[in-house]
From TrEMBL:
GO CC, one annotated term: cytoplasm
Enzymatic reactions: acetate + ATP = acetyl phosphate + ADP
Protein family (similarity comment): Belongs to the acetokinase family.
Lineage: Bacteria, Bacillati, Actinomycetota, Actinomycetes, Glycomycetales
Domain of life: Bacteria
Complex and partners: Homodimer.
UniProt protein name: Acetate kinase
Residues noted as binding ATP in the record, renumbered to the chain: K16, H207, L208, G209, N210, G211, D281, M282, R283, G329, I330, G331, E332, N333
Cited Gene3D superfamilies: 3.30.420.40
Amino acid sequence: MSAPVLVINSGSSSIKYQLVDGDTLEASTSGVIERIGQSESILTHRHAGEKHERRERFADHAAGLEAMVAAFQEHGTPLAGSGLIAVAHRVVHGGERFVQPVVIDDEVEQAVERLSALAPLHNPANLEGIRVARKLFPRLPQVAVFDTAFHATVPERAHLYAVPAAWREEHGVRRYGFHGTSHAYVSRKAAELLGKSPKAVNVIVAHLGNGASVTAVERGRSIDTSMGLTPLEGLVMGTRSGDIDPAIVFHMHRQTGASFEDLDAALNKDSGMLALTGEIDMRAVERAAEGGDRAAQVALEIYCYRIRKYIGSYIAALGGADAIAFTAGIGENSAEVRAGALGSLVALGVQLDEAANAAGGPIISTPDSPITVMVVPTNEEGEIARQTANLLQS
Ligand code: AMP
């Protein structure tokens, strides 16, 4: 490895990690620590094709990361001898300030903490990982890579909401967009598949995982994206509603007396495919639909129709697209969702090759399709490592 980076994605009760080469973007080791703080936590460590599991209670993120260091020591390369150039942290919200990766110091840490107001479900958990890792690896540069940063190029016409000036000017209300490292990586790979420079092509990326967003990338720059101030806007997701009339919130508050915290949780955690079908996992939804479950069939239609509307509007926003790239758990694996999402876009230049779509690509459109459709596996950790290595080597 010439530029090994330890990439950490810290959630409220879990930490994912990968040791990635910032030059080749290959991961030699990966793992996840789950159920931190519960009676039994699980560490799953993968190295050289082998999986090692450790089950015991890790009381907090510090105990979890210490167990990760021990796992590296026991299986494969001890971190101390791996020539690490940095620890890189995925941070969900960078606000208007962080439009590039940044080396973390006390001031950056405080700024990320202030941004928790915009991402209360994510930034505090990211920050916990940063604090613990700074103590555990005091001599290594710690770098924050922001999910919002790739969308800093979205112009005013797409990032401003028509809301009172004080909301925008005093409270940071605007579209930020998320999944930026994935959209950056996949749009670059899509250009590679077309055999062109990213600066020569327009690409629409549909990142369809548990969270989901679509981005219009014009010559390498994000010019619009479906998530907004928070990851709630846009597509129907596993547990998030995506776009709704905002007045529904006031209506339900008046009707039921539910607090704004309850309504926030309802739209982020109890909506989306879960609310429509009782299932979060798209595989379960597809199985139910195949088995004749009407609610699951309608939910799939809603899911695909929303994606189709975004793709159609982004073809218009870009004035034409060279490629549409599907990525993440659902985008990479569900031929049915991809076909459903592209269904009626033939008039806009999308001709799906059904056999290629069923086989999983990478190219899933016909050779004469004006827009090339592709499946591109995302690599968010690889992109975080690449950006970190670039920052430190520049
Ligand atoms: P991600 O957030 O990218 O890890 O994606 C998670 C989502 O991918 C879950 O909703 C899974 O159900 C979905 N997924 C994974 N594999 C498949 C598959 N073969 N078919 C449909 N959905 C899948």
